[in-house]
Specification:
It comes from Algoriphagus antarcticus. This is Peroxiredoxin-like protein. By secondary structure, the chain is of the alpha/beta class. It has two domains: 49 residues, no CATH class; 97 residues, K homology (KH) domain (GMP Synthetase, Chain A, domain 3), CATH 3.30.300.20. A hairpin with a 2-residue loop joins strand 1 and strand 2. The longest helix is centred in the middle third of the chain and has 23 residues. It is globular, with a radius of gyration of 19 Å. Helix 2 packs across helix 3. The termini are far apart.
Length: 155
């Protein structure tokens, strides 16, 4: 695969808040995101995406998109994917960092016979996620597979 570049720009708006945009995305739908200092820091703002949230979201989103690609190529029959993700920020060697990320993906399948395949694909997705491979945080995953039988209407 050849190199790709992903561009973003941020402009300070006021206080501890700015607007984050991407020229590639703005061509299509003009979506920008407010970004602010999180409330754990002085003058932080509640209710606005923070760089820390976006960091954790990038890892979670990468797991999902990588899972979807591998599941499609592996013809895994599933009905739902969701993932709750938690990042732990702490002081390490005198510097604040995201030391740990806990991914808690849930995949819903119709048949118990697909459980092992779903687990294998989730593990492959976590291993292949380029965002996870680009950070030094410890990343762990708690996998949850649910089986919901398919209902078929007979009349």
């Amino acid at each position: 695969m050849e190199s790709h570049y992903y561009n973003v720009g941020i402009n300070w708006e006021n206080s501890r808040k700015g607007i984050l945009c991407s020229p590639e995305l703005n061509k299509k739908n003009s979506v920008c995101i407010e970004v602010a200092t999180p409330p754990e820091f002085p003058k932080g703002i509640e209710g606005v995406w923070s760089p820390e949230h976006l960091f954790v979201a990038a890892i979670s989103g990468c797991l999902m998109t990588t899972f979807l690609a591998i599941a499609e190529n592996s013809t895994l029959d599933f009905t739902s994917f969701s993932c709750k993700t938690k990042g732990k920020m702490e002081m390490v060697e005198g510097k604040l960092m995201m030391s740990e990320i806990l991914l808690k993906p849930t995949v819903v399948i119709h048949n118990e016979m697909y459980r092992d395949k779903a687990i294998r694909i989730l593990k492959k997705a976590e291993d292949a996620c380029l965002i996870s491979n680009s950070v030094k945080s410890k990343i762990t995953m708690e996998i949850n597979i649910e089986v919901t039988p398919m209902l078929i209407e007979t009349k």
